[in-house]
Write a structure and sequence with these properties.
Elements: E1 14-17, E2 21-24, E3 28-29, H1 45-57, E4 62-64, H2 73-82, E5 90-95, E6 97-101, E7 104-107, H3 111-125, E8 130-135, H4 144-156, E9 160-166, H5 170-177, E10 182-186, H6 197-206, E11 209-210, H7 221-234, H8 238-249, H9 262-270, H10 278-283
Parallel strand pairs: 3-4, 4-5, 5-8, 8-9, 9-10, 10-11
Antiparallel strand pairs: 1-2, 6-7
Helix pairs in contact: 1-2, 7-8
Keywords: Oxidoreductase
Domain NADP-dependent oxidoreductase: 25-283
Organism: Xanthocytophaga flava
């Protein structure tokens, strides 16, 4: 039987987000507490609520969500499960997508849409201020000055504490940085797909949080073999090694693995107890 008494997200260490928000580096991504295709309510709402409560119980104090998850559903369940929130809990959300059906995502950086998305998130999460609000994507049809202008205005009004970006290049980060202070970047990144290594390095140099999503790359045979070899050594799953690698690869990574199962959540958080050594990192190099 799994011993959960030694599972604590704080074991991964903390990152001081924006220089003023200490968060444990093992967080939780709330995309999966919705229906199939990230659409509609979850199959088991009670289990989704248990997952969120368990996450906080095992030391997670950073939860990442978005208005587009459901849409609305993820934020509603977070509030249902955890409100009133503990003082140290940081809830990050995002705006910039329009949903029309399961697995359907349309970029929408129109100021009117972002304003409505932010207002909806504040209401659903029962918050006066969102600690971290992220622009889900740059919209090629909308000048970024207009999209970020809405967020900057909301920040000036106290509705947003800090602003982050998602799926961006260094050029886009630097463009945005002329308009707002960027405190986090959320890009797809894992051992098997290190496309954004240059962005990760930029984040390290600027003490900006790097939030990798999709932590396990499926279908990369060489990556899978290396992860499996290290997993066997540590008596762990490849997924746990993938998470442990992300923690080891850089001090600015802030993990948000998602799940709709309490058992899977515990397995994810248990990855903080896996200490990869130099031999492991030679097998799993940052490229």
């Amino acid at each position: 039987m799994k011993d959960t008494t030694t599972i604590n997200a704080a074991t991964a260490g903390t990152f001081i987000l924006a220089g003023d928000l200490p968060v444990n580096r093992m967080g939780y991504g709330a995309m999966r507490i919705t229906g199939q295709g990230i659409w509609g309510p979850p199959k088991d709402r009670a289990e989704a609520i248990r997952v969120l409560k368990k996450a906080v119980e095992v030391g997670v104090n950073f939860i990442d969500t978005a208005d587009s998850y459901g849409p609305d559903v993820s934020e509603e369940i977070i509030a249902e499960a955890l409100y009133p929130y503990s003082k140290d809990l940081v809830i990050a959300t995002k705006g910039g997508f329009t949903r029309t059906g399961p697995n359907q995502w349309s970029v929408n950086g129109q100021p009117k849409h972002l304003k409505a998305a932010l207002e909806g998130s504040l209401k659903r999460l029962k918050l006066d201020t969102i600690d971290l609000y992220q622009l889900h994507r740059f919209d090629p049809q909308v000048p970024v000055e207009e999209s970020l202008g809405v967020l900057k205005d909301a920040q000036d009004k106290g509705l947003i504490r800090h602003i982050g970006l998602s799926e961006v290049s260094i050029q886009q980060i630097e463009q945005a940085s002329k308009l707002v202070k960027v405190v986090s970047v959320q890009n797809m990144y894992n051992y098997g797909n290190q496309r954004w290594n240059d962005v990760l390095t930029w984040c390290e140099q600027n003490q900006v949080a790097f939030i990798p999503w999709y932590p396990l790359q499926a279908g990369d045979l060489s990556a899978e073999k290396a992860l499996k070899k290290v997993a066997e050594k540590h008596n762990a799953s490849e997924y746990q090694i993938a998470l442990a690698w992300l923690l080891k690869a850089s001090p600015v990574t802030l993990l948000i693995p998602g799940t709709s199962s309490v058992n899977h959540l515990e397995d994810n958080v248990a990855a903080v107890n896996i200490l990869l050594d130099e031999e492991d990192m030679r097998l799993l190099p940052r490229k």
